[in-house]
Amino acid sequence: MARRRFIGQGLAVVLLGLGRRLWAQLRYQPLARPVVVPLANLENPGRAFPFVADGVTLASAAVPNQPLRINGMVVRTAAGDNQPERFKAVCVKCPHEGCDVDFVSDPSRLPPEIVDQIGHPVTEPVYVCPCHNSTFKMDDGERLAGPTARGLYRFRVTGVNATVVEIAEVEEDVLLFT
User: Fold this and answer.
1) Which conformational region is residue 13 in: left (phi greater than 0), alpha (psi within -120 to 50 degrees), or beta?
2) Is residue 47, in this structure, part of any structural domain at all?
3) What domain range is 43 assigned to?
């Protein structure tokens, strides 16, 4: 009986951790005002464009209700129509120690030690933190390698029309921890 209970509790902890991670990914807050990026700057997949967003720290932050500027990068992840799902935007501040990450559009230019850390050949553009070589996927900012415990904070692309990509929300944690 003790063994079953132990296994059951272990499974519950694992499921709770996964559920918490999924919940964290779903919590977005509105920006102070939407950011608009000209669609002409994002015509080709893998091409990134920087932007600055204005937010307000949450009431539960260490310093509540303060204006906050957040540097971001938006990229078209796939060719085709201009649906919001074809664009992804991330905060360019590494969650490890707050260094600004670089966008590396040509993965063949990555140093061998970074490719070794990732553990497989890199064929897509990536974000790389120059401080400790944390590396992140282009399409969603997910962590590939390095000392950071999580991926890049994300923005939500909320709309695309014939001329602009609109970004109007950001992961809640950005408004707590930056």
Assistant:
1) alpha
2) yes
3) 29-177
